[in-house]
Amino acid sequence: MLNIVDNTVNPVEPFLRSDRMPHIWCPGCGIGTTVNSFARALIDSKIDLESLALVSGIGCTGRVAGYVKLDSFHTTHGRAIPFATGLKLANPKLNVVVYSGDGDLSAIGGNHLIHAARRNIDLKVICVNNLIYAMTGGQTAPTTPGHATTSTNPYGTFEPAFNLPHLVEAAGAVYVARWTTFHVRQLARSISEAFQKKGFSFIEVISPCPTLYQRRNKMGDGLDTMKYYKEKSKVKHGAPTSEVGLTLNGEIAVGKFVDRDRPDYQSMMRAQYVESLGERYIEEPEAECVCG
Amino acid sequence: MAKGRVSIVVERCKACGFCVEFCPTHVLALSSAFNSKGYHPPHVVHPEKCSGCDLCGMYCPDFAIYGTKAGELKVNKATGGEK
Amino acid sequence: MKADPHGVLTGTHFIDGDHACCEGALAAGARFAAGYPITPSTEVVERFAARVPTVGGTFIQMEDELAASITLQGAVWGGAKAFTVTSGPGFSLMMEHIGYAAMTETPCVFVDVQRGGPSTGLPTLPAQADMMQARWGSHGDYEIIALCPNSPQECFDLTIKAFNMAEEFRVPVMFMMDEVVGHMTEKVVIPAADEIEVVPRKHTRKSVEDYLPYGSNGDMVPEMAHAGEGYKFHVTGLTHDERGYPNMTPQTQDKLVRRLQNKIRSAADRICLFEEDGIEGADVVVVSYGITSRVAQRAVQMARERGLKVGKLRLITAWPFPEKKIAEVAPKVKALVVPELNLGQMVREVERAAQGKAKTVAIPHAGGGVHSPDQILNAIVEASRC
Q1: Full set of structural domains in chain C with CATH
Q2: Is the pLDDT of residue C21 over 70?
């Protein structure tokens, strides 16, 4: 017999817009799983939810913004990071999370990704990487591993893929980790750690797209992919990011690769103005100039 | 007596099987019944083994299942740091 | 409410239009700008970058115009009044985010200091060829407001108006300068802060439980909340219902898109600003805007010296197009003469609104300079004969 839902509450429920469930993600898609880890991280790190804003771009992961019960912004394709930058700079008290996909963040939004990392804007970026453009039907992404079959590379991809941890480390991120959707607790821990950092944090989560990536590459369904992650992942904390690129069937290096400190954008801005302007520097605008 | 129990929101389930596969104590199996979307949700086959660890809930991409420890029922009017 | 005195540089200044625009933005309460350098607009943000740390606010130079035009919208939802500044090529890149601002009803100002195009065109020389782009550049049906200053003083005054209209209607406002107005240096008088009327954000006073982010409340402009206030609202560029939730039905689309359109159209009488002179009894009326209106002024003067009956209608608001005013003037005159620094953009609107009641005469100019008064005078003389 099927159990009927009882009067307890799913720990993730308070973080969801329950009135929008069920969500649009396919059976076996890993995006929902990453949201569980995100919710767990929020519980564990005791973040004030009213101070938290979540910004997504466009794509399957872009839909996260519409399902979380937070101030949430579903922006334009590739532009979650610059929108989040404006939000954070206008209200530095906000904790701003960018939650989006690999295509959104690293292709159309790639320029913003590297520049936000360079500036060290205090954003927590969660990049769900399903190795493909999923929402539009399985086209090659900058993250698609060589030889994978996609709808736009039906004979196999041949262009080299981005190694995202390497890219964002080179650009200046202070915290870089990678997990798969199999690593639910480790992922939650990494997100919690990122909340403790000031600066640009980047967490990549490798996630199944059974409908478009795994199916076309004869890799089974979502569950098969989870088993593959379990089998092929190797925890390599502190590994040089140059060595953590992904291949079609090979090992998946996971772990915390980068954890370093450097001043974030707003600290640098403040320091520069104080040095140059002294007492003439006014940090906070008069709130009444907006709302009266 | 079981240390925990599993709750299932049948109508949200899309039968990915993550919970069944990754339950550390093998409490669950996919049932032969259908929900209204035509998926086979999991059901509890070994309630006595449930530790209430909520790993099923952590894995579930559809927010359709969760575990609670005995004595923890009605826990979460969810705080999560909320004011 | 009155302007925040911190941002108001009260006094008489000798500054160019770009700098005056910046001062207008500061006076209006703008405390955030995101930009990307582009001639002939950059001076606006250069001045903002120098001024804003002493007023309390932020300027950030982004990596491109795509970023600048959405960063400012993040800042708006974070509680700031914000704007960006660009010229043609950058304006082209910003189009998607004008649509996003229209769809999400994000009050903000896009300043476009127009130069010759298409493409890189004439970076340092004027044109007025972005007028249709300002109206129709993003995909889908939406309304915006566009204002056209013709002097540094107006760059100050109308920038305040642009911010005020953006806030009142929760709409992106296009501030359509041109290279000449931007780089022209004249006297600009900035009044005392308590003489400057500023429209505050239409912020909700409703409780978290009662708040509907896109609920219509009679005047069609929803109340806004900012991130971090506990409302836990959702904003999306997808078609959305009153809760702000995506809803992919023709009914929701119809309701939303019509409201976005009607909130501007129904207030067009209030939004449409123009300046008229000598229209009663005129045979010919010159319809112009921006820098061209100053050349037209000279041409009208010359025509009157020759005894011609010529009126002048200067469009301050280009969008929504003041079609009611044109429809009112057209039956009373022989011709409407429309000089503009493009090969025929607003003249089409004039012709449409005139409904055949008066002859419409375009005086096109491909840009790179301005008309000579004689060019406009000749057209007036020609039109007076028919």
Answers
A1: 5-195 (3.40.50.970), 275-385 (3.40.50.920)
A2: yes
For residue A292, give the nearest of C1, C231, C232 by CB distance: C1
Q: Give the fold, CATH level 3, of B4-69.
A: Alpha-Beta Plaits (3.30.70)
Q: Six-digit token pair at A77?
A: 């394709």
- Cβ pair A89:C75 closer than 8 A: yes
Q: pLDDT by residue (tens digit) across A144-182?
A: 999 999 999 999 999 999 999 999 999 999 999 999 999
Residue A48, chain C, CB below 8 Å: the answer is no
CB neighbour class for C26 (10 Å; exposed up to 12, middle 13-18, buried from 19): buried
By Cβ distance, the residue of A86, A87, A286 closest to C4 is A286
**Candidate from C63, C81, C237 with C-beta closest to A290:** C81
Question: Is residue A121 domain-resident?
Answer: yes
Task: Report CB contact under 8 Å: A32, B43.
Answer: no
Our count of domains for chain A comes to 1
Encoded amino acid at A211, one letter:
T
Q: What are phi and psi of C319, to 5 degrees?
A: -130, 135
Q: How many CA atoms lie within 13 A of A211 on its CB side?
A: 15
- Searching chain B, which residue's CA lies closest to the CA of residue A64? B61
Within-domain flag for A273: no
Q: List chain B domain ranges.
A: 4-69
Confirm whether pTM is higher than 0.90.
yes
The CATH number of the domain where A256 resides is what? 3.40.50.970
Return all residues near B56 (Cβ < 8 A) that are at least 6 apart.
B6, B18, B19, B22, B23, B27, B28, B42, B65, B66, B67
**Beta carbons of A40 and A46 less than 8 angstroms apart:** no
Residue B72 half-sphere exposure toward CB, CA atoms < 13 A? 20
Residue range C198-237, pLDDT digits in tens: 999 999 999 999 999 999 777 899 999 999 999 999 999 9
